[in-house]
Amino acid sequence: MTFNIEVETKKQLSFDYKKIIDEVINKVLEFENCPYETEVNLVLTDDEEIHSINMEYRGIDSPTDVLSFPMIDYISPSDFSIVEKNEREYFNPETGELILGDIIISVDKVYEQAKCYNHSDVREFAFLITHSMLHLCGYDHMEKAEANIMEEKQSQILSELGINR
Fold it and tell me: Which of 2, 87, 14 is nearest to 42 (CA)?
C-alpha cells in the first residue's frame, strides 16, 4: 500500500501522523476486504485552502473537516469487482496498485473538533481518515440508512485500532 502525503499548511500535527495514516488505511482496507495493493493521496491543509476547494468542487462557501475524492465508480460499496473490468482506469500502470482516490484534511479542523468533541487530536485525525477511506470504498451518508452503516463501520474500525473517545 502506498500513501502519498502533501503538507500544505504551516500548522503542525503534534503526533506521528504518518503512523496513524498507515494504521487506519490498512485497517479500513482489511475491514472492507480489499483484495488489492492500493494507492491513496492525502493532503494536509488549513481551513482557508479547504474552504477554497469546497467552493470550487462542491459549491459550498465554508471550510469543512475533510474532503474525499473517490476514483472508483462502485456499483455497491466495497464491491471491488468493477475494477477488474477496466484496469487502465483504476490501476497505476507503474506500480500496479489500485488508485482509491484523494483525501484532503484541514489540520485546523482536527484541532478544533478534537477540542469540541472532548477527545484527542489523534482520535479526531484517525476518525477523519476512517470516514474518508470509507468514502473511497464507495460508502456515503446522504440517506439515514447509509449514515448508520458508515457510523457503525467507523466505530468498529476505530475500536479495533484501540482509538476511542
Answer: 2
119 labeled part of a ligand binding site:
no
Q: Is the pLDDT of residue 165 over 90?
A: no
Instruction: Kindly state the percentage of the chain with pLDDT values over 70.
Output: 100
Tell me: is residue 51 an annotated ligand-binding position. no
Provide the domain limits for residue 39. 2-160
Residue 165 resides in a domain: no
- The tally of domains found in the chain comes to 1
* 135 in a known ligand binding site: yes
Give the residue, 86 or 131, on which the prediction is more confident: 131
**For the domain that residue 102 is a member of, what is the CATH number?**
3.40.390.30
pLDDT tens digits for range 112-163: 999 999 999 999 999 999 999 999 999 999 999 999 999 999 999 999 999 9
> Which amino acid is located at 11 in the chain?
K
- How far apart CA 43 and CA 5 sit, in angstroms, is 6
User: Does residue 132 sit within a domain?
Assistant: yes
Residue 154 included in any domain: yes
